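Record type: ASSEMBLY
Status: queued
Input:
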Amino acid sequence: MVSKLTRKPLKKPGARRGPRSAAQRVTGLLVMLPWIMQRGRVKISTMAKQFNLSEAELVDDLQMAAVCGVPPYTPDALIDVYMDNGMVIAEVPLVFSRPLKLSTAELFAISVMAKTAMQLPGADKQGPLSSALAKLAPLMPSGADSIKVELPRTRYVKELREAAITGERHQIEYFSPASLKRTTRLITARKVFENAGRWYVAADDHLSGEDRVFRVDRIEALLATDTFDEIRELDEEDLPWFSQALPQVTLRVEKSARWIVESYPYVSRVNNRDASVDLTMSLTSEHWLGRLLLRAGTGVKVLKPKAYRDLGKRCAQTVLARYSASDLTS
Amino acid sequence: MAVKISQAERMMNLLALLVDRTKPLTLRQIRQELGKQYPDSDEAARAAFERDKAALREIGIPIQTKTLGGDAAGEVTYSVNRSNYELSDLRLSDDERLALQLAVATVRLGAQHGEEALWKLGGERVLRPTAISVNIGLVDENMSVITDAVMQRRTLNFDYKGEKRQVDPYGMLSRSGFWYIIGFDHLRRDQRVFRVDRIEGKVAASQTRAFKSPVGFDVATAVPTEKQMLAAGDGEQATATVLVDAALAVGVRNEFGDSSVIRERPDGSVEFSIPCANMAAFRLWLFAMVESAEVLGPQVIRAQVVQWLEELTVGN
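Status: finished
Output:
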């Protein structure tokens, strides 16, 4: 169903480990204090979730902030933030009332994210995102304009996004290169996502009765059915990628075919002394592996399972048979 | 005796003091103001102060220093000007803030900088999943140095294909899951494209701004597309005639356009004219279709394809 997944596992933004340094705690407070002051009062649990902190960490930081200020450290000279009945409350702003300037990394991120979002099908090019970018423009360093993200232009992305929002079932004509067949199936789209230059849709597949991921560029026709299913939001981590139960294949990749290491997802990798690499990959289908071996040529061989050691040879023979059958020289 | 206090709390108090006082302060004055927050011994207090100062600078607070003359010759004063580190009010509307929130929720960079920018802009991280998302891999260990250099126009130094390169990065492009740097390569004395994940080892950037991009530079056209790659080579033949079975012909037509069609056959298969000057790229493209495509000519290209296939049938 899907031929490619991200080369590295997706991480939840903000996931972190280990104790925080003093600089991290101070930066966090300098970001959070103006943020609370703008809102006046926020639930501790909401705020902890928002800032990727445990409630204990947040309470610790805010208790510390509440005793910080300027000499003589009388109540009126301290940062006016306190907690009451599960709420964080900030009142009179002292010195930390304005947010910090955006770092170059933050400017890069917000600019790239906003410009990429503007390219999405159906995006309003004259809307609030565009005017927000215009307001941010004076802050951007001179090189910001020369950083671009190119998204693939694929038919039906806009319609499938709408379908994920409304829960409307669609009938699709789907082409599978492995079987060279087209199937007609009913799907309920749950999330449309782009990864490594391709658009995918995660959907309930009513033909197989399973959650599936389809490549959008292989959907050849899409038809709304006017039947609606309950809306189900899918988080990135819940995407039905390859099943863990898929068999695995280990390949020895010589330097001449190193592009495979860079282009295909793998489960594990061992670098050998002779510059070759042993890659273990999830095997989605024999057709997929055969195609990979054909493209890679003599720079790759299958180490295991044994059953696939001659797959490249078998594929080459199949293609050669076609050339022999249509020998144009005779 | 010094009071027991965490470095974070002392840093907060130091910053609050330097922001609050209109006049620059010496370390002696700072220690007096902060009471027993710094250690009693001069040496330990100086070391702790230097640590605090470095950490504040690291998070983007510029602490200005000035060496005094006259009676206080040699003493250094410290001050912080709020306008140097505080964000001015951008007057974002609620709709604009919401649009940025949605953009940050939709586009994933693999780092938290987008969320941090949002908070500083008064926005919130959207915690519910979105119906559409884009995953831009920004996971390479060198990316922060590279993006900073491109934004600030600083020269990069790195190893690439076994050679030391000094590159003025004119721009960056993310395409099909890869990041590219396009810039002036001082080694080749020409504009070149580098794929970030192929850089060997660490990247270093110059401290000063060093160059300007050429007038009219366009990052998107500077990196050849897959289609252009097929034509970018020194092979003897510029194009090949390729017969593609009906099942895959639609996709090839979409990729290369109607102008690439030579002839449609009654069974739905199509003969295409495909660039093949770059034979390595042509092989990858052709064999992706396995037995559903066949090179009809020129004979030299067809013979090459047959040879590739025969090589694979030997051994194993």
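Annotation: The radius of gyration of chain B is 30 Å.
Annotation: The domain at 227-313 of chain B is CATH 3.30.70 (Alpha-Beta Plaits).
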